[in-house]
Write a structure and sequence with these properties.
single chain; mainly alpha; MetI-like fold; two-stranded antiparallel sheet; 12 helices
Length: 275
């Protein structure tokens, strides 16, 4: 019976792996095919001749490097801003002793997460247009920070809840003030949580499309999702260039998770002991 269960488990995991990596494999293969070979039938699961013309077009003609830099700047700045704000708000929310105010604040934050983004697009665009802040990387960075604060605060609170208050009391007894206690005791212990929050915010901001399409109109201000969306037109879809853009767009998120993976695992397994 145990052997059958193990076989079923391996088969299911293998099927899950194929379903997960299959689309990624096909995108990579498509990006390495020439223009005509993409549409050949029967389908070729590996290009007869590997070519990098789609990547050359991506960076030489479409100015994709500018879009990549824009996305990187916005994602890093917005993720860092959301992380910084959520650290203090999450700590304050974690240390509130009164149950009712804490529950009210949490309910408000949870409520903001169920509001569809498209419902906020019109009033947001009108408000930014009135102050002349449309088509600005700074404006969209601020918008991204505001959209990420609630969930990041909830995540930060959950990590701070696991840190015993006795550690803070011990630091205060040793002569630290409240600010020193936060920076020397609480934040170092919450590094796994910080990595998880930053990774979550970065990936969501990097992949965001709707707000970017609405707020960014100039070609030099485009982010990667907007640029990839521009390869889809009424005349058709440039599958080769689009696939090459997707492959390049995956690299930053892979790098972020590669560096943050250790801390994320620590955050899930060794988050501290809750009193």
């Amino acid at each position: 019976m145990k052997v059958i269960q193990r076989v079923i488990r391996v088969v299911l995991l293998a099927l899950f792996l194929v379903l997960s990596l299959g689309p990624l494999y096909w995108v990579i293969v498509t990006s390495l095919k020439g223009g005509q070979e993409i549409y050949t039938f029967p389908i070729r699961y590996w290009p007869s001749q590997v070519t990098f013309e789609n990547y050359q077009y991506l960076f030489r003609i479409s100015d994709f490097s500018t879009y990549f830099q824009n996305s990187l700047k916005v994602s890093l700045a917005a993720s860092a801003g959301a992380l910084l704000i959520s650290l203090f708000s999450g700590y304050a929310l974690s240390r509130i002793r009164r149950r009712k105010p804490k529950m009210v604040l949490l309910l408000v934050m949870y409520f903001t997460q169920i509001i569809p983004t498209y419902m906020l697009m019109s009033p947001l665009f009108i408000s930014l247009a009135k102050i002349g802040m449309t088509d600005s990387l700074m404006a969209i960075t601020v918008v991204y920070v505001s959209t990420m604060i609630a969930f990041s605060t909830i995540m930060a609170k959950s990590f701070f809840d696991r840190i015993p208050e006795a550690l803070e009391e011990a630091a205060l007894i040793d002569g630290c003030n409240r600010t020193q206690t936060i920076f020397k005791v609480i934040f170092p212990l919450s590094l796994p949580g910080l990595a998880a929050i930053f990774s979550f915010a970065f990936v969501n901001i990097w992949n965001e499309l709707f707000l970017a399409v609405m707020l960014l109109s100039s070609n030099h201000n485009m982010t990667v999702p907007v640029a990839l969306n521009s390869f889809i037109s009424k005349a058709g879809v440039n599958w080769g260039v689009l696939s090459a853009g997707i492959v390049v767009a995956l690299l930053p998120t892979m790098v972020v998770f590669a560096f943050a993976q250790k801390y994320i695992i620590l955050g899930l397994t060794e988050g501290g002991v809750k009193e």
